[in-house]
Amino acid sequence: MGGDRMVGKWQAGNLPAELTSLIGRRAELEQVRQAARRSRLVTLTGVGGVGKSRLALRAAAGLRPQFSGGAWLVQLSPLVDGSLLPHAIAEALRLTDQTTRPMVEVLAEHLYDREILLVLDTCEHLVGACARTVETLLEAVPGLRVLATSRRPLDVPGEFVYVVDPLPVPPPGTSAGLGDAVALLAERAAETVPGFDLADQDQDAVIRLCRRLEGIPLAIELAAARLREMPVEQLADRLDDRFATLRDDPAAPAASLTDPAASGDAAASGEAGPPWHQALRTAIGWSHELCEPAERLLWARLSVFAGDFDAEAVRRVCADELLAEADIGQLLDALAEESILTWLPTGAGERYRMLDTLREYGAGWLRGLGEEERFKQRHREHYLSLATKGAAGWLGPGQISWYDRMIGEHDNLRAAMEVALGVKDGLPALELAGTLAFFWYGCGYAKEGRHYLRQALDLDTRPGPALAQALWADGLLAATQGDADGAETRAAECERAAPEGDPYAALCVQALRSSAGVIRGDLVQAMAESEPAYLARWSGEPLTIAGLLALLCRAHAYTVDNRVDEAIAVLEDLRSLCDERGEQLMRSHGDLLRGQAELSGGRLDAAVSYGQAALRTKRRLHDSFGIGMTVDLLALAAGAAGRGLRAARLLGLAQRIWSTHGQAQASVPAWVAARKGCEAQARDLLGDNAYTVAYRTGFDSDIDAGIAYALEPEGEDLPNGNPFS
User: Fold this and answer.
1) d(CA 279, CA 281)
2) Measured between alpha carbons, how far is 183 from 25 in angstroms, rounded to an integer?
3) What is the pLDDT of residues 421-465, one digit of tens each?
């Protein structure tokens, strides 16, 4: 039952749908699959742009049916801090954990009895961290296999290194219809140029072009994007000229990005840069030269973004006297048409992404212009501004919109934090990490938030509002993780750092101390420290996370002390305060507590009603811990009503949810005991075999389908009963 770790049928993985077809690679695919069956770590290496990621994803898709736990892609290119690698893996696995345990330990426990394939894409900038994490996980998880892509091997014992070669190019004198490189050019050209037909082209020029690009897929795709501007013959001739120029002058100097005649082949800063194949570097450089000056400049500035980004962020970060804000949209469209950017339509609007190889090239040019630091700081300032607006709007009607927006910007928030931590004056890091308190707390990133907050607090400990806010943020996350000592310590530090007489700081301190009392089971402390917030709840002061947290602590203490009516009175006030402002997350916490209080009072109808209300919001905000707690609540209500089948299914579903949270279940003793009592009651009602079938049905169900079941109307009124009695 609850404590058992079971492998269900529900995990298929997160491999993305392919946006374009994979040309050729049949033999390579089979070789990679065979290697993955023999070796637990297979690393695909090769030059940039050769197609390592595409090959790995297609191979993983073919291998996925062999792994009951699924095949999961972890995209590492946006990640800068290698110590966050386990967090990135957990995020890809949809595994959340709010404890203080090291994330790699949580991962190992979560994956222990699963058969799973991890695809770690773009490891070369984090080779050391990847090697350590992979070695640890492979030792701890017998059913784990890893497929990695990297420009260099990970050097882990047992690693099988597979070198990905360019696509084969037709030898001289053969038909242009032969060869995967030619097929790729033809297909990508047909996507770019309406009516393009390979049979109508100069076959010798097609072969010459593919041979000149040496079969490197990215180079061929960049060339294909230019066929809308010139025929194949001219394209091949100009590339021949470019190679001849490089042969004659291999150290050609870099030119200004704003110079229309700038050559794109030399490293902008004189640095060697990534180990690119000459054909790819030439293709990128030539594409760069064919761009308009403003397009080249934007290409360089876009290199400061991590992952994907939207046009509004580009306007705020990249526009100035050289790039008019009004022109940004048109320039982004042009770069997408030229295959420099990938256009990503989403439900929240248009976003863009740049391939790592092209981003590195742009970064080299930005560095050569001496503007890298300037635009990294502009990027940091933009995301601080975004965080400030998000913090102001979080406890309001736009909360869910802010949740979606901040989740979508996670890669860029990490990048901004890394830049902020690199500023000698620690204030920028302190400001950004502290301002993001609502994100770390409300979006489920307590571990990562504390990782950054600790670094920021190590940089700057000057008393003031920024320090007090960062200390409050770290204390809030400590409380979220069940770390009472951490919450108490940060409360004391926050009290010392805050300006004297600051009512907001005082409220933060009281909320942290009240939370520590709840965690320790010290009801006297929880009550005493929440008293000021309770008395001031209708004072007209702005709604804060600290104030609402203190009310939640007070209600919890009342419930545990069996003062149910007083708990309900506090929760009614909290619900009204949230409803006045359109806040949903803290209200859902209150609804969960209200359901628990009603259940303690034996009012099962009310317990189910409030539990389902909480579950709807927690599902929308992906609060896995809250979802697990709420499904447990609904299972207890069903058990108390004598509905053994529903109780067993919900207990299985709850355990399924806890298994994606990195812990067995909520560890509050009263609730562990109540859950065990519910299981025993359901077994008595159904018998062992029927109970096991129902439990497994819940455990093996898709989470969304399981939650839909939990939200179904209960039907007739439930009888009264107290599962704690």
Assistant:
1) 6
2) 12
3) 999 889 999 999 999 999 999 999 999 999 999 999 999 878 889
Query: What's the pLDDT tens digit per position in 187-243?
Result: 888 888 888 887 777 778 888 888 888 889 998 898 888 888 888 888 888 877 776
Q: How confident is the model at residue 177 (pLDDT cuts 50, 70, 90)?
A: low
Q: Phi, psi at residue 174, to the nearest 5°? A: -100, 170
Task: Tell me if residue 413 falls in helix, strand or coil.
Answer: helix
Q: Is the pTM of this model over 0.70?
A: yes
What is the rounded CA–CA span in Å between residue 168 and residue 188? 17
Give the torsion through C-alpha atoms of 300, 301, 302, 304, to 10 deg.
110
Helix (H) or strand (E) holding 353: strand 349-354
CA–CA distance, 214 with 283 (Å, rounded to integer):
11
605-632 pLDDT per residue, tens: 999 999 999 999 999 999 988 999 999 9
> CA dihedral defined by 49, 50, 53, 56, rounded to 10 degrees?
180
Q: How far is 539 from 379, CA to CA, in rounded Å?
A: 39
Taking CA atoms, 437 is separated from 10, 84, 218, 642, in Å, by 33, 18, 41, 43
Euclidean distance between CA atoms 314 and 306, whole angstroms: 12
Match 């520590």 to its residue by tokens: 516
At 420, the amino acid letter reads A
CA dist 81 to 310, 415, 451, 536, Å?
A: 23, 9, 11, 42
Contact 382, 291 (CB under 8 A): no
Dump the DSSP string for 557-590: HHHHTT-HHHHHHHHHHHHHHHHHHT--HHHHHH
pLDDT tens, position by position, 120-173: 999 999 999 999 999 999 999 999 999 999 999 999 999 999 999 999 887 766
Whether 529 and 510 have beta carbons less than 8 Å apart is answered as: yes
How far is it, in rounded angstroms, from Cα 575 to Cα 587? 6
Q: How far apart are CA 397 and CA 617, in angstroms?
A: 13
| CA–CA dist 284, 676 (Å, integer) | 63
Which string of DSSP letters, residue by residue, matches 314-342?
Answer: HHHHH-SSSS-GGGHHHHHHHHHHTTSEE
How many CB atoms neighbour CB 140 within 10 A? 15
Query: Does residue 317 have a pLDDT over 90?
Result: yes
CA distances in angstroms from 208 to 51, 173, 176, 203, 236, listed in the order given? 21, 11, 10, 9, 7
Task: Identify the band that residue 667 occupies on the pLDDT scale cut at 50, 70 and 90.
Answer: low
